[in-house]
Structure formats: C-alpha cells, structure tokens
Amino acid sequence: MILLTGATGFIGGLVLEALSTKNVQIRCLVRKPARSDNPNISYMTGDVLDPDSVLKATAGVDTVYYFIHMMGKQKEREKFDILDRTAITNMVRACKKNGVKRIIHLTGMSDPHEKLSHHLASRKEVEEIIRSSGIDYTIFRASVIIGRGGGAFEILDVAVRKFPVIPVFNWGNTRVQPIYIGDVIRYLVECLDKKETLNKCYDIGCYEIFTYKELMQEYAHQLGLKRIFIHIPGSWHWISSLVIGKMSTVNSNVVYWLIESLRNNMVCEPNDLKKIFGFEPLAFKESIMILSH
C-alpha cells in the first residue's frame, strides 16, 4: 500500500496519474472528501497537522510519498516553518508506529555554502528530519521544474510573456539547473522498484546550467519573443510578488517566497542517476517544445 500526500497538488496529482497505471494500492490523504473510479485508488480525509489522522492514514502502508510544504503569508515566516516541522514530525512518528518502510520525498535544491532563503531553509529542515528518522528514504532535490502548474515555471512564463521590458534584480546571476516535469515524475515513480536508491538523496536537473537572466532569455527565444532586459539593483520581493501574483495563477504569498529563494544557487552535485534509471533529463529547449504543443 502506498500513501500519497499532496495528491491534489501539482506534483502529487501527476504522481497519482502515473501510479494509477501500476498494479498498486494507493491511498490519498486529502483535506476534502473525494472518490475515484479506479479500484486501486482510495481517499482518506485528514490533515498532516493532526497526529491521529496521520496515524490512521499510515496504517497498513509500506511507502509514503511526502509532498507537503507550507508557504503562508509574507509576514508569517515563523508560522509556516512551524507548520512544516509539525507536519513532517507527525508523519515520521506515525510511520514508525505503523512500520512504514520508506518515505519518498521531493524538495528544493540548495547550496550548503549559502545562507538559505526562508522557503528553502524550511524545506531543508524537512529533509533532515526525514533523513534522521531511521526510516528508509529516497529524496530528490530540484530547482526550477518546467511544467504547467508549477509555481516557478508559472512565474517565469508570466515574466517573459507579459513584459516587453523585463527588470532583472539582484538574482539575475543566480545559477539554476532546470528539469522537465515529466522527468521529475519518472524519477519519483520508477524509484519505487530501485532498491539502490534507498537512503540516497539526488539533485536532479538537465545538463544545462543557466543564470536566471539566461533562463528568461532562452525562454523568450523559444517563444519567438523579443525582450529587453534591464538590471535594477535590489530584490524588490514585495512589489514583484504583488505584480506577478495578480497576473498569474500562483498565489502572491507563494510568489513572494519563491522570489526570495531566487538568490540561492541550485546546481546539481554529480550522481549516478543515468546508470540507475537509464535516461537523462530533457534539455530546457526540448522541455519548452513539449509544453508548447
């Protein structure tokens, strides 16, 4: 039995779709009642912040997909840090009591030599709690995920499509290694059957490294758009999040924390994923070509 958290979210929904083609039992922990016509998929109403509902949800479960992350209002940094910590602590305790064998988790990439943004620091803490839990785990870390519905990509899309003149703030030279959403889902699903990924953490990304400015320039080029980029000192988190939030489907509070994280470099450490999985993530250009069709 697999327990899937975040099943109604961007990543969780796609993982559920991929898992539904396999002959496995999937229990989705959701906050609102739902049902499925697939006999292998069931829904359980609960909340990761409620220890009792998490204990009930993990009963009889072998593997947990943990895709929970809180990002609240801009002035509530401590609140979402606490909620993140509470949620994963509840999950780890419940997994131990019910004998869950493995936790599979997707988080953000980070540079250990940098001071992390509030958003990435909270994600790093969740990762560390999982790693020190004594439960087997597989953790993937990504930077910019290229896919419709993903917060980082939607911000990129709005900035490039909507602004003929694009301001580049103090994050313009931050380096990132984007990855296509289909490759992310493939790693998350296929690792189920790969024992060599137990108790391992992997940075995932395509072979190309871009600065954020280069990423926007390349995206504009792929869309056939001519854009002017102007450097402006400072970060301008609040104004940027307000403007992008109004023009995109991403909540302005989420935009704020994602923009704050633009100062952190996200470049992959070497790994043996190609040997294990037998494929390399698509190049950024190929990702955009797929999304454009």
Q: Please report the first level of CATH classification, the CATH class.
A: Alpha Beta
Low-confidence stretches: none
- Overall structural class, as computed from helix and strand content, comes to alpha/beta
How does the major sheet shape up? 7 strands, parallel
- Element-level helix/strand string: EHEEHEHEHEEHEEEHEEHEHHHH
Rough outline: globular
Strand content is 15-25%
CATH homologous superfamily annotation? NAD(P)-binding Rossmann-like Domain
Describe the secondary structure blueprint for this structure:
Blueprint: E1 2-5, H1 10-19, E2 26-30, E3 41-45, H2 51-57, E4 63-66, H3 77-98, E5 102-108, H4 118-131, E6 136-142, E7 145-146, H5 151-162, E8 165-168, E9 175-176, E10 179-180, H6 181-190, E11 200-204, E12 210-211, H7 212-223, E13 228-231, H8 237-247, H9 252-260, H10 273-277, H11 284-291
Parallel strand pairs: 1-2, 1-4, 2-3, 4-5, 5-6, 6-11, 7-10, 8-13
Antiparallel strand pairs: 9-12
Structure, described:
Strand 5, helix 4 (118-131) and strand 6 form a beta-alpha-beta unit. Strands 3-2-1-4-5-6-11 form a seven-stranded parallel sheet, sandwiched between helices. A two-stranded parallel sheet has the order 7-10. A two-stranded parallel sheet has the order 8-13. Helix 2 packs across helix 3. It has eleven helices and 13 strands. The protein has a single domain, classed as Rossmann fold (3-Layer(aba) Sandwich). With 293 residues, the protein is α/β, with parallel strands linked by helices.
Protein traits:
293 residues, alpha/beta, Rossmann fold, seven-stranded parallel beta sheet, two-stranded parallel ribbon, 13 strands, 41% helix
